[in-house]
Amino acid sequence: MLFEIKRRFSGEVVFKLETESFRLCVEAAIKSEADLSRAYLYDAYLSGADLSGANLSGADLSRAYLYDADLSGAYLYDADLSGADLSGADLSGAYLSGACLSGANLYGAYLYDADLSGADLSGANLSGACLYDADLSGANLSRANLSRANLSGACLYDARNMVKTMGVEIGNYYWKRFEEGLNNNDYQFKVGINKLRDKEVFADDERQTCSSPGFHFASRSWCAINYPDRPLEAKIRIPEGAKINEPWTTDGKASADMIEIIQVFDVKTGKDVTEQYR
Fold first, then answer.
1. Which domains does the chain have, with CATH numbers?
2. Theoretical Cys-Cys bridge with 98: which of 78, 143, 243, 273, CB 3.0 to 4.6 Å?
């Protein structure tokens, strides 16, 4: 079977090969250093393909199946990847400046040191993605799912439409679970105000999901799901003067440098045991 790769709009044939699959045709084109810029690859099945270093700038890869593909170091400037499945793909060091990734599935994708400046990531699923040291300056992140993504070292300068998931505010009430004796992470808590130890500096980097030092808290249901074996739960308040860190990539929790414990409950019985911890 003869497969042909054509350019968008002009229909010019870029590469053709007699092969058993379109994926092999594309890989062969890349190995032969064919220029695939502005190639028409809409809805193409390229799962697991080796596209590392490929010149795919301006290419139409919308709705393409690229899960587990190797796109490391690929040139994807202004490429259309809207609706593409890039879950688990290796995009480390890829050049995606100005690319359209609207609605793309990037779950668990590896985007270490990738250039995503000015990219359209609206509605993209970046859950669990590695964006360590990635350049997201000027990117559109409207409705993007960043839960559990790693944004350590990422550049977020002028990134647009990022919204905090929880919307943590001073004075609001949240929940935290504890071990026996109202202990957690080598801290002995009590009813009332609890602060970090002397000389501990609160970790307030919004790019890190589980920063420390800091007291983490969440909704009551989140605590129940994630810490089912901890025997005590407390209703807490964020007191005036507290510093808050709610990461952009939150998995459902935030942290503060001090919390006020209001009530304590026995998880198993539901009994109010506050008086035991005053």
1. 2-31 (no CATH), 37-163 (2.160.20.80), 173-277 (no CATH)
2. 78
